[in-house]
Write a structure and sequence with these properties.
Blueprint (H helix, E strand, L loop, with lengths): L1 H8 L3 E4 L29 E2 L4 H22 L1 H11 L4 H30 L2 H15 L3 H7 L2 E3 L8 E3 L23 H30 L5 H20 L5 E5 L19 E7 L5 E6 L45 H8 L6 E4 L6 H7 L5 H11 L4 H5 L6 E6 L17 H13 L6 H11 L4 H10 L4 H15 L13 H15 E4 L19
Parallel strand pairs: 4-5, 8-9, 9-10
Antiparallel strand pairs: 1-2, 1-3, 5-6, 6-7
Length: 531
């Protein structure tokens, strides 16, 4: 009975990886022609074949999950409609609760039937036995056997765990979320809190329903189902390349959830994989996800660094010594990590932006401006520009000239790309004397260039001399030290400040002609500029 219960509560099994012999070469007289699927059987994996009972019951549960996902996303509109129609009364709610309880009872029965189907499948029995041994014993031999199965990662045994995240006394970090200002008078503060309570409730509902789904589309169950075949193919390729899969877990707050993406190892709080790429840059790559959970649960910057002998850093950036492939909408963990851990030696932000509010206002009605701003600041704030200014190391921004996500108008309007604002905020913080009104105008003129030839033409028009700019910056660093902000350019002629502004913009931003989700090719990657 214990094994039957394990089958009922066990994870979904997707693939079984086996080491097979080389594919048989076709012989004369074989019906299968050379190159046919039969003659090119995979030598290392196969889909798990469930029995009929498990297959059909699992389909029913999947359909129920889809219906629940749709109803959850549309719940605010549904409640508003039911309220307007007068259906939210005890006489109507009680029968509905009876129907809901009956449906849950039937679904529980279907889940039990699926468990029975698994119980009669020797392949699943072997898998669940190995999984239980891995949780109970956890030896390397058991983990190696478990790596032969691809299943819901939430059931993978935890390899690393930390209960508390130590706070640094010297941290110069700033909070993501901005609480409302406190009033001196207790009475006025209480009355003000009561007045703002409806708005706060509305913000909470918006953030926890469709708001975070719009911000993190990977949390949408329908999208997860659509991307699941690609995810399985990518994971299979990683298994073929003998990648290791581990899970790290923290107790509080709840770990960030998943975002389906090809060639990504997942984890509950963070998934760790070791890699060595063609540039001989190697190190641990993190993905802040928890497969099988809702990716939209990432409301706060739930990002931790696990220090166990080697430096580990979150995804969303390229770090010197560790190559990080940024997932959708998770690049913004990089600015938090760089701000909190100043020992990060270099930072590359690809297709990033300075602030989420302008992008949120772009897709929402104008009448919702106040609600959207309050919701973002209190629940979904991604203040990358402020956090990036707290980092002292080398930075490179990659601006995608055809980005359709972080532009506030149309992708063709390159000046509406919020990466421009991120660059300006960084330069204005680090070089305030250079980036005055005229310096900002020079950089904006350079940012308007739509091709490398136009960029060169702008620099040639203002006679930018790289050697002179380098000598000025090195001289200032040698005299005053490397810590930002710098006062270089304070006693300089306007022509010199213009040259420095354009020079610094070129060194901190790289254009890449592509859309938002296009992978950054290896040949387009370069380390940030160092003085």
């Amino acid at each position: 009975m214990a094994k039957l219960l394990s089958c009922v509560l066990g994870p979904r099994l997707y693939r079984v990886y086996r080491e097979r012999g080389p594919a048989r070469l076709p012989q004369d007289g074989d019906e299968a022609a050379e190159g046919s699927p039969a003659s090119r059987e995979s030598s290392w994996d196969s889909y798990y074949q469930p029995r009929s009972l498990e297959k059909h019951s699992d389909s029913i549960l999947a359909l129920a999950s889809v219906l629940w996902s749709i109803s959850y996303y549309t719940s605010p509109l549904a409640f508003f409609y039911l309220y307007r129609k007068g259906y939210l009364t005890m006489s109507k709610v009680v029968p509905f609760s009876h129907y809901a309880a009956t449906m849950l009872f039937l679904l529980a029965g279907v889940a039990c039937l699926r468990g029975i189907g698994r119980w009669t499948n020797p392949q699943y029995i072997q898998f669940i036995t190995i999984l239980e041994d891995s949780h109970r014993i956890g030896t390397p031999e058991i983990k190696k056997k478990l790596a032969s199965y691809n299943f819901d990662f939430r059931s993978w045994p935890v390899d690393f765990r930390w209960d508390e995240v130590s706070s640094r006394s010297d941290s110069r970090g700033i909070s993501l979320l901005q609480p409302p200002p406190k009033h001196r008078s207790t009475a006025n503060g209480f009355l003000n809190a009561v007045k703002k309570l409806p708005c706060q409730i509305a913000s909470y509902i918006v953030a926890h329903t469709f708001g975070r789904r719009m911000l993190y589309p990977g949390s949408v169950y329908l999208l997860q189902k659509a991307l699941m075949p690609m995810l399985l193919q990518g994971q299979a390729r990683l298994v073929e390349e003998t990648w290791e899969r581990t899970q790290a877990s923290g107790l509080t707050p709840p770990p960030p959830p998943p975002l389906p993406a090809v060639r990504r190892e997942e984890g509950q709080a963070a998934g760790l994989r070791w890699q060595r790429d063609r540039h001989d840059v190697h190190g641990p790559a993190w993905d802040l996800r928890a497969p099988g959970r809702q990716a939209g649960d990432l409301l706060r910057r739930q990002c931790w660094i696990l220090r166990s002998g080697v430096p580990l850093h979150p995804t969303g950036c390229w770090l010197l010594g560790a190559r990080m492939e940024p997932p959708w909408f998770c690049r913004q963990h990089a600015t938090w990590a760089a701000m909190t851990y100043p020992e990060i030696s270099a930072l590359v932000l690809d297709a990033s932006f300075d602030d989420l509010v302008p992008l949120a206002l772009k897709v929402m009605p104008e009448s919702w401006r106040g609600l959207v701003t309050r919701t973002v600041r209190q629940h979904l704030n991604l203040n990358n520009g402020e956090q990036l200014c707290r980092y002292q190391g080398p930075v490179l921004l990659v601006r995608r000239t055809k980005d359709e996500i972080i532009t506030t108008t149309v992708p063709e309007d390159i000046m509406s790309n919020r990466g421009n604002d991120l660059l300006l905020k960084l330069l204005q913080h680090r070089y305030p004397k250079v980036m005055g009104e005229e310096g900002v105008r020079m950089v904006r003129e350079w940012l308007e260039a739509s091709s490398p030839m136009e960029e060169v033409a702008v620099c040639s028009r203002y006679e930018v001399e790289d050697d002179w700019c380098m000598s000025v910056l090195r001289s200032y660093r040698d005299q005053h030290g490397p810590d930002f902000p710098w006062s270089v350019g304070d006693d300089m002629m306007p022509e010199g400040r213009r040259q420095l502004a354009l020079f610094l913009a070129r060194k901190h931003l790289q254009n890449f002609e592509a859309t938002h989700c296009t992978p950054l090719p290896h040949h387009n990657f370069r380390l940030p500029w160092r003085l």
